[in-house]
């Protein structure tokens, strides 16, 4: 549909979620209110 593989879409979505979670945490927002996935993404470093 978009011209890229399913794996590429999943990777891009994961990275986008990770960036969003970090931005929310940096803005001193309560990341926990966005769910456990957001909290776990902020905690990981890569």
Number of strands: 0
Written as H for each helix and E for each strand, in order along the chain, the element string is HH
As residue ranges, the low-confidence spans are none
**Helix vs. strand class:** mainly alpha
Roughly what fraction of the amino acids lie in strands? Answer: under 5%
Q: Please, how many helices?
A: 2
Oligomer: single chain
The main sheet comes to: none
What proportion of the residues is helical, as a percent range? Answer: 55-70%
Shape: elongated
Provide the residue-averaged pLDDT.
80
Number of structural domains: 1
Determine the N-to-C terminus distance: 30 Å
Integer-rounded radius of gyration: 12 Å
List the keywords.
single chain; 46 residues; mainly alpha; 2 helices; 0% strand; elongated
Question: Could you please describe the fold and organization of this structure?
Answer:
This is RNA polymerase sigma-70 factor (ECF subfamily). InterPro entries: WH-like_DNA-bd_sf. It comes from Nonomuraea jabiensis. This protein is an all-alpha fold and 46 residues long. It has one domain (6-44). It has 2 helices and no strands. The chain has helices spanning 6-26, 36-43. Helix 1 packs across helix 2. It is elongated. The N and C termini lie far apart (30 Å). The model has no long low-confidence stretch (mean pLDDT 80).
Task: Offer a concise description of the structure.
With 46 residues, the protein is mostly helical.
Topology:
Blueprint: H1 6-26, H2 36-43
